[in-house]
Structure formats: C-alpha cells, structure tokens
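Per-record layout

source: Pyxidicoccus parkwayensis
name: DUF308 domain-containing protein
length: 195
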Amino acid sequence: MAITIERNETTPGSTSKVPSTIWGGPFILGLLIAVLGIVSLGATLVTSLVTAVFFGAMLTVAGVSEIVAAFRVRKGGGPFLLYLLGGVLSAVVGLFILVYPKAGLAALTLLLAGYFFASGLFHAITSVVDRYPRWGWDLFYGAVSIFLGIVVMAEWPISAVWLVGTMVGIGILFRGVALMAGSLTLRRAMRQVTT
C-alpha cells in the first residue's frame, strides 16, 4: 500500500482556498442566523409560542431526568426526596406549558417583567451607593430596565404576545451579527499574517 503526499503549491498569482473556508463558513452561518433573527422579529407571536413550547419541553425532559437521578441517588443514600420533588415539579410545570402554551407564555412574560424590574433596581441602587468608575452607565441601564419592567407589567396580557418573541429575535439577530463580525476579524487577521 503506497502513501502519496500531495504538496499544495500556489503560484504567485493564485490564492489558496483554505483561508476562505476558515472564515467563510462562520460568516455564512452568521448571515443565516441573522436572517433567522429578522424573520423571528417579523413573527413575534409565532416565535413566542415556539419558545414557550421549547421551554416546556426542556423543563419536562429535565424533570424526568431528575426523577431518574433521584432513584439512582437513593441507592447511594443521597437526597432522594429533594431530587424527586424537584423533578416532579419541573415535569409538571413543563407539561403544563406544553398543554397550555399561551398560559405558559403569559407566565414567562411576568417572570421576565419581574426580572427586568428587580435587575434594574439592583443596578440603579448599587451604582448610586458605590459610585465606582463609570457608575452612570449602570445607573442608566438600571433606569431603562426598571422602565421596561414597568411597561411590560402595565401591558401584561398583551405584552405576552410580543415580549418573548422580540427578545428571542433580538438575541438570534445579535448572535448572527457577532458571528459575521468575528469571521471578518479573522479574515483581516489572516490577511495581515499572509502579507
């Protein structure tokens, strides 16, 4: 059996295809993810419902896994009841969200509103009390987060339609943009190395 080794020789006028495959794949993936983010922002209700169903499915799987882990831990003398009750709770909440995705979406929206409000309050108070360098930015973030929490709570049943889908769409869009920016930075760095 003979082994042949091919040499990749390039002439001065030609360029190698390897560098473009290194940064091109992540760029195209980022572009597709950014387009998916834009589509998600255009259909926030569908995105919200899909997110709620996905969240419910993940909670159900986690609950079942925790119940199985409870019986495995029981043999070793671990916290059986803690794992069992936690698993049952997760599975029941996940199944509830799967059966009633709109109610699950409303609950997720309330949780997000509470998170925005509490996080904003924490950032605002901490920045004013500590007055560390550039504390004004944290105060600004806190004020915006408090405002967003109040708006979501004030418009609550209606805000369930758009909030989760909008946040997921923005997250997907920025992830795609970050991938494209990272691949272009890699391309620039590779050009500097080759020159």
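summary: Confidence is low (pLDDT under 50) at residues 5-11. The two ends are 40 Å apart (CA to CA).
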